């Protein structure tokens, strides 16, 4: 495979003979001679140059401080929420323990009062033999 590079030419104003032109100095209309001898004339198209990238300014220290302050504030709010939840759970647990102790102690008292077991512990009061001084009743 053979690779051919076209050679740009222009015509000189006084002569109609083609003249070789250095690349970069060609006019708006160009002519080139192909390897087979044909001449092609046309407008030169310059490749589009991309816009130069502008350097982005660094992030300001104020923006960084505001962002870090927001993160810190959210962390504190989350910590306070967890602390509040922990205190509420601890309070509920202590309430349940007190209720359990009251139920157990109340059950023990009920068993002591209503038991008619083999022992006669405690104070027995016979209402028929009572002397009620307030009403002046003597039995």
Explained architecture:
With 139 residues, the protein is an alpha+beta fold. 39% of the residues lie in helices and 13% in strands. It is built from one helix and four strands. It has a four-stranded antiparallel β-sheet with strand order 2-1-3-4, with no helix packed on it. Strand 1 and strand 2 (18-20) form a beta hairpin. The longest helix is centred in the middle third of the chain and has 54 residues, at 61-114. The chain is rod-shaped. The model has no long low-confidence stretch (mean pLDDT 76).
Topology:
Blueprint: E1 7-11, E2 18-20, E3 29-33, E4 39-43, H1 61-114
Antiparallel strand pairs: 1-2, 1-3, 3-4
Give me the strand/helix succession. Answer: EEEEH
Helix fraction, binned, reads: 25-40%
- How many helices? The count is 1
Q: Sheet bearing the most strands, described? A: 4 strands, antiparallel
Give the N-terminus to C-terminus distance in angstroms.
143 Å
C-alpha-based Rg, rounded? 55 Å
- How many beta strands in the DSSP annotation? 4
- Low-confidence spans: none
Strand content: 5-15%
- Please state the average pLDDT score: 76
Brief descriptors of the model:
alpha+beta, 139 residues, 39% helix, four-stranded antiparallel sheet, single chain
